[in-house]
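Lab notebook, bench 4. Still working through the backlog of constructs that have no structural model yet. Next entry is a single chain of 521 residues. Request: give me the structure tokens for it.
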Amino acid sequence: MVVNWLRRLAILISFSLVLDAKSYNVFGFSVNELGQSLNITQFLVDHSEGICATFIRVHGYQCGEFEVTTNDGYILSLQRMKKEDIAIRQKQPILLQHGLVVDGTSWLLNAPDENLPMILADSGFDVWISNTRGTQFSQKHVSLNVRDKEYWNWSWEELASYDLPAVVDFIFGQTGKKLNYIGHSQGTLTLMTQLSERRLLDKLKSAVLLSPIARLSYMKTALVNFAARTYLDELVKQLGFGEIDPKGIPVYNMIKLLCDQPGIDCYDLVAAFTGKNCCLNSSTVDQVLKYELQPTSSKNLVHFAQIVRDGVVAKYDYMNLLQNIAVYGQPKPPVYDLSNIPNDFPLFLSYGGEDALSDVTDVKTLLSILGSHDVDKITVQFVEEYAHVDFIWGLSAKNVVYNKIVTFFKGDLEHNRSLYLEKKKATGKKNKDKNIDISYNVYGFTLALQVWTYEVIKTFVPKLVRNTMLQAHEPVCPCPRIIQYKSNRKSTAFDLHTALQGNIVKKMELSEEEKILYVGE
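Model written out:
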């Protein structure tokens, strides 16, 4: 214990004394160059016109700006966009919730035919974009000033329990319809914690979780791991920083300090934080540097660090026995039980093999927690080459992820079949594609039922009438003859009758060895 605190003290002293830096890159910019290009404490552009004027109307979409006040007094910015030629009353509302240290702008940085909000609008949805407290367009409060330290006294727990319900209630009140939800990173955590407490279910229809965060135990980013496990987050908070501005001098110095630690490679800072993103281009990077990296609170970073250190998603730990008892009635903060998410709530999860924050092993842990989810209510997609921000800025995201999201929201029962055919076409071999789309839905059961009916007729119906009936019940081609369940350890084929009677589809769960359910011919 003494050694740990001495180590933290040394880091604190180093943090306060850092003056010089090596050359580190953010999207190809060194830390020193980045500081100059960002002018450290100033935004590069004037954001006063808002998201609608800057990013949406210029591309021919209708857009409205709204403000939503939370129960604890924060005033949030909210945008609503639609395609001009579609009557808004006929559209299904969708809420997009961004991740950490970005805002709603993050969804709109790619070209119109490549960013998710406009793809959804073109597909006939009523698209709403939320901006959490503290970000550039959501810095108002009914009584506090953004410069007040108390303004920054919140973590993702308040984003989940105040911001999210306020926005969902507002949209539901405006549309009268249950919402579809899309969250990235932090935006997945806030929703899952609410669903685990059976909240918002009366106003939400389904949810898409991109790079879901529910565990951070196997996070590969050495930079964040070092900061969390040395309690650097707590030290920063103790120094009196309420706001953490990625473009400010304190964060600039902290990054330089962390990058000097042994075993931490900061040549590409974004890769150091998020993993090696495969599919960004220079124009998107320019947009990110120009418009993004938003403030958050030091308490929020502390709360994320607690997930890293404790290995569970729990309410905020005040690190004080008496204070925890005063707030929670117990010495340790309550843990969110994500297995309480209703089994019949439709979910689509997509995660990447190169993601250093939403690590594959941590996502598998989440999937095991959701193991009892209804098989026709959960779809899981794994994209091996994707890292954390490929899901929002990747040039291939439209074809790889977004089109499947549209299919999911439209409730297409052919979803599993289309994923299988795409996978087979891309590789020319069954089950060799590393971008495995594991889809839990009713398609496999439906095909099995068709074939079973076909076989029953062929076996038991008198020959005179059999041919006519077989024509009527011919399964769609190409038709599966078996459902095969494979793992690294075994491969077992079940005849269709056994598959139906035993409901083999329910056995498809992720384990330490990847299990793949596929339809064989």
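Notes after review: The two ends are 61 Å apart (CA to CA). Residues 1-47, 412-417, 429-447, 469-521 have pLDDT under 50 and may be disordered. Flag for follow-up if needed.
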